[in-house]
C-alpha cells in the first residue's frame, strides 16, 4: 500500500472511532413523572400555561421543561422508545434534547417552566 493510501485509511479509521466515541457518550435525556405534591397549584401559579386540543404533534425539548398537568390526558412517545402516559395531577420533567410525539386523548392544560441549565427538575 502506498503511503498516501495508508494515511488516508488511518484518517478514515480515526474519524470512524471519533464518531463512535461521540455516539457512545451521548446520554438519553432524563424523563420523570410523579403524582404532583400537595400545594402544587400554589407553586406553579406563576408558570406559563399551555393548552392543546390537537390530536398528534412532535416536540423537541430545548431546553428541558417541567410541567404540572392541570387537566387532560396524553401519551408521549420519545425518540428512544420510552412511552409516558400523563394525566391531570401528574408532575413531569423532561431533560434537554428529548424528542417526543404527543398523542392527545383529552384536551390538555399544563403549567410549565423551562430548565435554565439543561437538567431536569425533579420536584416543585
UniProtKB/TrEMBL annotation:
Residues 44-112 form the (S)-ureidoglycine aminohydrolase cupin domain. It comes from the Bacteria. InterPro entries: RmlC-like_jellyroll, RmlC_Cupin_sf, UGlyAH_Cupin_dom. This is (S)-ureidoglycine aminohydrolase cupin domain-containing protein. It comes from Paraburkholderia diazotrophica.
